[in-house]
Amino acid sequence: MYQYSEQDHQLLLERVAQFRGQVERRVKGELSEEEFKHQRLRNGLYLQLHAYMLRVAIPYGLLSSDQMRTLAHIARKYDKGYGHFSTRQNIQYNWPKLEDVPDILDDLAKVEMHAIQTSGNCIRNTTSDPLAGVARDEIEDPRPYCELIRQWSTFHPEFNFLPRKFKIAVSGATQDRAAVAVHDIGLRLVRNDTGETGFEVHVGGGLGRTPMIGKVIRPFLPKQHMLTYLEAILRVYNMLGRRDNIYKARIKILVHETGEDNFREMVEAEWEKIKKGGLHLRDEDFEWIKKFFLDPEYEELSDRDGEFENLLLTNAEFARWVDKNIELHKQPGYRIVYLSLKTAHQPPGDVTADQMDAIADLADKYSLGQIRSTHRQNLVLSDVRLKDLPALWGELKALDLATPNYNHVTDIISCPGLDYCALATARSIPISQAITQRFDDYDFVNDLGDVSINISGCINACGHHHVANIGILGVNKKGVEVYQMTLGGSAREDAAIGKIIGPAFEADEIVDAVSDVLSVYLENREDPEETFLMTYRRLGDAPFKERLYG
Amino acid sequence: MDNYIKDRKIEADEWMPFTGLEDGSSLPSGDIYVPLEEWMQAREMLLARNGRLGVALRNTDDPGIIKDDLERLDLIVLEFPKMADGRAFSQARILRERYGFQGEIRATGDVLHDQLFYMQRCGINGYELRADQNPANSLKAFDEMTVTYQPAADEEFPIWRREPKSI
């Protein structure tokens, strides 16, 4: 992974000192709360319902075991013993004290971590494919490009006071595991006819009140132009994006109101003027950055293992876990392991400090000392030897991290909701737990196959309900929390915004409604290979509506 | 007067804002700056005057409008109507980097301690600090950070093209 240079370290130390100064000026009254807000937000510090919330950046979701141990230490020392992995691969702490935050940042800086630009109207942490570098369907490893974007966007002097927040995701594989279509800018690595790699540039995707799928404004951008093109898009947005209405300030609204073609013309006109400038990337720049992301020295292993195969035949529980939570690796004899953070006992994405420490140890023991966080709020050990799977499974089970449900009905994305969030209008965690408890039968979960349920506790849509196969949106209607259902969304390469199916359900009805929708699917699918989304797309709303409201 | 910083020093401000050409009032002597519309209307009259000239842009103006006049101007005034409104950062970079403007680029409005570092990087070198700011303290803002990653008005290249590679 990327190793900090002296300057990278220096920058973090300066940033911590600067933030310490800002906190002091705030405490002395030299900074108003409104002005301090802009500063603390640029350091990931929100004021929530009960306390401050600190969001720590995990650049493109990649963590070393030592970094994970520091996250555990922070959870234990400054919080209530747990952290929450977000849909943008970051981690959030729900209970830090303002006066402790500079010390937390100091501790983070020691392991090359920070909270820079994890909130505020600036370029946020760049996200990526959690299987970067190990996926079988990869065209090229996206992480070197993510790191270049991280450096370019960090304290960018021109783009630190944008109309609204700005999120970039990069995917390097044929399958989109980074949800690029619902980002302000999504970059997909593609190969052109001559075999050269470049980017398909998506602009103007996003969720929130006005969900939109990004538009491809350039089907192929040669990679040496990546940063000049990003700079051109950001400049057009900074100068022309709406600032009169916070709900119309995202770039998706600018693209929509300007029109895709006009927007493209403006970007290309600006780009023509800067494409040969200092941000033009040379071959040696790529060579330099790619050296940080070289393949580890994999062992030459057989892709079969006797003990593994024996356990697979004799232990149904192990077989289920392998079937659901293990993915093939590009290197024979290795596997990718999903650690499910979705149990009935914890809010989705939550991990305790003890679990974090244990995960760090497991990463050292079984997976080359690295951990990845995923868009769907799980963790990944990316380089596990096939022959180690039985032992790893035993340890994960003991930690309650082996629920066999990856990409299945109980692998629910949920925002923190009204239990924590100042913006929320309804609770979301209790709904996700109720659904998880209802669908606790493995065979049924297995039979339902690949299906996504996402839950948001307000229209800001942090739980990405719009792009779930089954989306649930909690709203407050005359003092009562009710839940609206959308069907047919997808955050993958076939991205789509789900459609509202009908009137909202009360809290005690929504789990039954989910169950009904799934029954309609099971009754109507042509065969078990047809997923929920395929069936929905084939049949449309009608049979689902009929069952729910008929 | 004393909440003005120029080139990282607290200075007396010699410039006077001026509007009201349409009243036929006689033009004052000395260094004045006028809104863009008045510059467009009375360009020749303003140029015939003795004293330096500046133009104030609104943050929605395209700086390209005055690109051919920049050699005749000594000051461009940009506005930050509130801290969160960062449009003028782009105007400043375009004036410096694209059009090579050599005179003063001045920030007015909500000009606060924590933006000075970014303003400086975008090519702004004059700062009318908001009245409640402490100019002596604000001078420290320019050096709070010494590491910069990306090119801007102060750096032609990103960090990876400036420093010896560590790997």
From TrEMBL, chain A:
Pfam families: NIR_SIR, NIR_SIR_ferr. Gene3D superfamilies: 3.90.480.20, Sulfite Reductase Hemoprotein, domain 1, Sulfite Reductase Hemoprotein,Domain 2. The keyword Amino-acid biosynthesis does not apply. Residues 52-110, 345-398 form the Nitrite/Sulfite reductase ferredoxin-like domain. It comes from the Bacteria. InterPro entries: NIR_SIR_4Fe-4S, NiRdtase/SiRdtase_haem-b_fer, Nit/Sulf_reduc_fer-like_dom_sf, NO2/SO3_Rdtase_4Fe4S_dom, NO2/SO3_Rdtase_4Fe4S_sf, NO2/SO3_Rdtase_FeS/sirohaem_BS. Residues 119-273, 407-528 form the Nitrite/sulphite reductase 4Fe-4S domain. The keyword Heme applies. One of its GO terms (molecular function) is heme binding. Keywords: 4Fe-4S, Heme, Iron, Iron-sulfur, Metal-binding, Oxidoreductase. This is Nitrite/sulfite reductase. It comes from Sneathiella chungangensis.
From TrEMBL, chain B:
InterPro entries: UCP030820. It comes from the Bacteria. This is DUF934 domain-containing protein. The lineage of its organism: Bacteria, Pseudomonadati, Pseudomonadota, Alphaproteobacteria, Sneathiellales.
